[in-house]
User: What shape does this take?
Amino acid sequence: MTPAGTIRYWAAAKEAAGTAEEAYRATTLAHALEQARTRHADRPRFARVLAHCSFLVDGNPVGRRDHDAVPLAEGGMVEVLPPFAGG
Assistant: This one.
């Protein structure tokens, strides 16, 4: 069965998505993000913001790993973090 979990959007990603969180059903981060892009195709800013975001999967930074190689677990959490100002 394909794992189901939650995508949580922060700051500009939340604004661009028009929601704070939504469900996913995907085996990899790449698949979940593709579903999100399709779901928000009517919000062109969403894809632009997503292209600049960092991701945490179950609290672990994804970094530069290929999103196709990042597995998602049942009940998992993907956090979408846009660049933040300051340091």
